[in-house]
Amino acid sequence: MTRKTNRIKEVILKRSTFIIFLILILGAFGLLRIVTTHKDIDDVANIDLPIIEVLTQIETYQLEQAIAFERAIRYAEEIEPGNDIALQGFAEADSTFRYLAELVDILLLDAEQSVIDALKQTNQEAQRIKLKGLLLSIQKLESDHTSYEAHALEVVDLLEEGKLEEAVFASERVESEEDQFNKQVEGVLMRHEMFTEALVKIVEQEEVLSMKWIVTLTLLFIILSLLAVYTFSYKIWRPLEDIRSGAEKIGRGNLDARIKLSSNSITSDIVESFNEMADRLSYSQKEIDQFIHFSYSTADDLKAPITNLGSLLDMLGKDNMNSSNFKAILNNARKTNQQLQKTVTSLVEVNKVREELASDSERLDIDEVLKEVVASNITKVKNANAAIKKDFSECSEIDYPKSQLKMIFKHLLTNSLAYRDPEKALQIRVKSKSVNRHTTIIFKDNGLGFDSIKHRDEIFRPYIRLHSHVDGSGLGLYVIQMIIDYHRGGIRVESEPKKGATFALRLN
Can you give 463-476 as a three-state secondary structure string? Predict the structure, then answer.
């Protein structure tokens, strides 16, 4: 029963593992989507926003730098002897311009390094493409700002030298470069902000898509779980209902009731146990019927000699011990007593076999068991000049109670010796076969034989002898069938008069 329980437990564990596996897949998918989404958000927070902030500062400082440059030109135009305010204003504007120019240079370098670091961090191909383009734009801004700054400082130097006309003329080119640089900064900033907004939208869409997938997979998982539970419950409930129905049939006396179920059913082991129980009940009922029949047959077989013995004893009581009939009556009484002893001995043997049916099996060498049986009957074998040929090459060993296998061989050999054909030498062939893991012994002789079709229902009954010219108990085949039936085997007999007999015994 432990094996059966383990079978059901194994199936339950497999189904539970399947459901847990689905949960893990769902959890892994949800976690993966969350991690991916968080990675996109982190890229926005750690990469895009700082770069936008730097570009915004660059744009702001560049505008302030342009204002300082214009103020420097305006104050330079107002510089006259004694006008200290204009001179001071020019100096402050010049200082502010140079300071802001350095800040813009530093911020451009910082922005370039930030982009380089971001390229090393991100794994998103779209982000990498955008950052590579942004890096080229910042490097172009650095080059343009350097040119703009150099030309602006040249104008400031001309203003300091008092060359106002030349400075004003040169400032037009500087203002043009300034406008172009400002537009470039604004364009880079706008493109980067647009990309960031697009990325944020993608992240939001992926979050929505992730939620849809998680909800869909959750619903699918619930449906699969319900189907699995329903299928699992049905596969358990249906066989249990069949078992209940089968038990009712057996309870009503139908011992042939069995349950048919596909071999892959999870309750196949329970059904198998039920059918085994039904087989045992059927065998027990059959054994009871056979025992009742055996008891009646034994009583009937004992009735005649007991009656005869009683009559002989009465005759001996009336007859004179010196009379001529006394010895004849005494001899008849002795023969009757021998017949009683033989019957009682056979009865004891049958009961002994019945008591030993539940003996433990052991690994047996079939040839060695047969040798022991032949050795114990060697005198009869030699007297019959019997030749025994054996072939156990296909199946040489079997798990079986040794005493019972010896009993089978003993009765088969005894029958062959007793019912041999006096017109020809006795030949016995014993062979083993293995079919579907069942061991079959084929025992064949060339003796007198009998009509197996006509007498197929008689030969296994107790005290039945088809040949009356030899002594015998008539219990040999009855004992063999009792042993075979207990082990749920089978017997097939083929025989014709004067053509010997073949017994095919499936032992297990």
Answer: CCCCCCCCCCCCCH
What is the C-alpha to C-alpha distance for residues 275 and 254, in angstroms, rounded to an integer?
A: 13
81: CB partners within 8 A, 6+ apart: none
| Burial classification of residue 499, based on how many CB atoms lie within 10 Å of its CB (0-12 exposed, 13-18 middle, 19 or more buried) | middle
Q: For the chain, how many structural domains are there in total? A: 3
Same domain for 170 and 286, yes or no, is: no
Tokens of residue 149, six digits: 């700054």
Evaluate whether residue 386 is within a structural domain: yes
Domain interval for residue 42: 2-225
Per-residue tokens: 320: 């004179």
For the stretch 367-384, pLDDT in tens is 999 999 999 999 999 988
CA atoms within 13 A on the CB side of 107: 22
CB 443 within 8 A of CB 411: no
Is the pTM of the predicted complex or chain greater than 0.85? no
Gyration radius from the chain CA atoms: 56
Q: What is the pLDDT of residues 491-501, one digit of tens each?
A: 999 988 888 89
* 448 and 343 in a common domain: no
Nearest one of 487, 391, 484, 396 to 442, comparing CA atoms: 391
Taking the C-alpha atoms of residue 427 and residue 416, their distance in angstroms, rounded to an integer, is 9
* Phi-psi sector, 500: left (phi>0), alpha (psi -120 to 50), beta: left
The set of residues, in sequence order, having a beta carbon less than 8 Å from that of 197 and lying 6+ positions away, is none
The CA–CA distances, whole Å, from 338 to 188, 329, 334, 343, 440 equal 127, 14, 6, 9, 37
List C-alpha distances in Å: 503 to 212, 308, 419, 440. Answer: 73, 37, 14, 10
Task: Report strand pairing: 427-435 vs 387-391.
Answer: parallel
Q: By the 8 A CB rule, do 391 and 431 touch?
A: yes
Say which residue, 60 or 41, is predicted with more confidence. Answer: 60
Q: Please state, in angstroms and rounded to a whole number, the distance separating the CA atoms of residues 234 and 294.
A: 47
Tokens describing residue 440: 């079959």
Nearest one of 112, 108, 113, 114 to 147, comparing CA atoms: 108
Q: Which of 340, 355, 370 delimits the end of a domain? A: 355
CATH code, 337: 1.10.287
**What is residue 349's three-state secondary structure?**
helix
Judgement on whether residues 468 and 496 belong to the same structural domain of the protein: yes
- Do 16 and 98 share a domain, yes or no? yes
Phi/psi of residue 248, nearest 5 degrees: -65, -40
Give me the sheet containing 490-495, strands edge to edge: 387-391, 427-435, 438-445, 501-506, 490-495
